[in-house]
Design a protein that fits this description.
Length: about 375
């Protein structure tokens, strides 16, 4: 695992370890030569050894977080989290090339099929990091892959399930992806679009202002920017100083009661019309936020608005909040600092999706 670290980091750490070793030998020699005749030199040598022990301990902690610690955070803002992506996503990430030269990257154990047989029914999951499996190391543990495995057990060879989601994507991207799939006549019949409630953020101009804000100067310091432990420590301290993610979730909650929701609803309507035009059977999953909001769920109205839109448009919809809410005490997030759904949440979602959203396909 240490050798999957960036080359520059390995080179720098090797130099640092050699410097530590040389400093240790030098301090021991200095201390021995000082003897009892030079108590002031011996005192400085002991002080140097104390400092060396501190730096060596800090280095061991750094190596642990660089080579062993394997966790993500919600916004993938730490070097540790980005290293997780290099370990668990990059090896299985694939590229789908379209005829017009455009590409889309996706994470899947199997490549997206160019053709299928007449007896097979293609199901394509699209969405952002929730569908992508942010924080879930094994693709097989995602809800899309669990659905695929169960369908294969029940009806071998009948369904071809793909996952074209990508972390950080939005509703505009979903529309563009479906247009590209239709233009190239790739095998798509059932489209399962998993809406994460933050999909609305691109319809709020405040989002761009928030993401474009200049980062604090301390985050640009060499040791904070290029290490794993200090980078993570800085991120945790900064996160702790902004309870609840600062104003981010407040913005999202407000958006579902204002113009951003009107714009998102119009875009969802465009996606629905696109699917009708090309013969795609659009189905929507609404995935709730799973971190601790207390006894009252502040995004209940957001769920209601999306579900009402789907019912009015005749789009099959599954709201996962009633499914997952009874299990919140069991821990459904990846970790304390990553609010994405963990393996258990994906398992519960997969069972509900197969039963309540795709059940009519299986019964045919």
């Amino acid at each position: 695992m240490p050798f999957d670290l960036p080359f520059d980091y390995l080179l720098g750490m090797t130099g640092w370890l050699l410097a530590l070793a040389a400093a240790f030998v030098g301090l021991l020699v200095w201390r021995r030569r000082s003897g009892v005749r030079h108590p002031s030199r011996r005192k400085w040598a002991n002080l140097g050894l104390s400092l060396w022990i501190f730096l060596a301990s800090l280095t061991l902690v750094e190596l642990y977080f660089a080579a062993i610690y394997d966790q993500t955070d919600s916004f993938n803002s730490t070097n540790v989290s980005q290293h997780w992506f290099e370990r668990h996503v990059a090896p299985v990430q694939k590229v789908l090339h379209f005829k017009d030269g455009q590409i889309t990257r996706y994470r899947d154990d199997r490549p997206f099929p160019a053709t299928i047989s007449d007896r097979q029914q293609p199901i394509c999951f699209v969405g952002d990091s929730f569908t992508f499996g942010h924080g879930v190391a094994n693709c097989a543990d995602r809800f899309s892959d669990r659905v695929a495995a169960d369908l294969e057990r029940k009806a071998p060879g009948r369904f071809v399930v793909s996952n074209l989601s990508d972390a950080g994507r939005d509703t505009h991207w979903v529309e563009a992806l479906l247009e590209a799939l239709a233009k190239d006549r790739l095998p798509v019949k059932v489209v399962v679009y998993t809406i994460c409630l933050n999909d609305i953020e691109t319809f709020d101009p405040r989002t761009e202002e928030m993401y474009s804000a200049k980062p604090p100067w301390i985050s640009q310091l060499f040791l904070v920017r290029n290490t794993y432990f200090l980078n993570l420590l800085y991120s945790r301290i900064r996160q702790a100083s902004m309870p609840g993610g600062g104003s981010y979730y407040s913005f999202l909650q407000e958006d579902y009661s204002g113009p951003p929701w009107d714009r998102m609803r119009a875009k969802l309507d465009e996606i629905h019309r696109l699917c009708l035009k090309h013969g795609f059977d659009l189905r929507i999953v609404v995935f709730p936020f799973l971190h601790d909001f207390g006894p009252v769920y502040p995004f209940a109205e957001a769920h209601e608005r999306i579900v009402e839109f789907c019912k009015a448009a005749g789009v099959p919809v599954l709201d996962l909040w009633p499914v997952l809410q009874p299990h919140l005490s069991e821990g459904l997030t990846v970790n304390r600092f990553d609010a994405h759904p963990n393996k258990q949440a994906h398992a519960l979602a997969a069972e509900a999706i197969e039963r309540d959203l795709l059940g009519n396909l299986i019964d045919k």
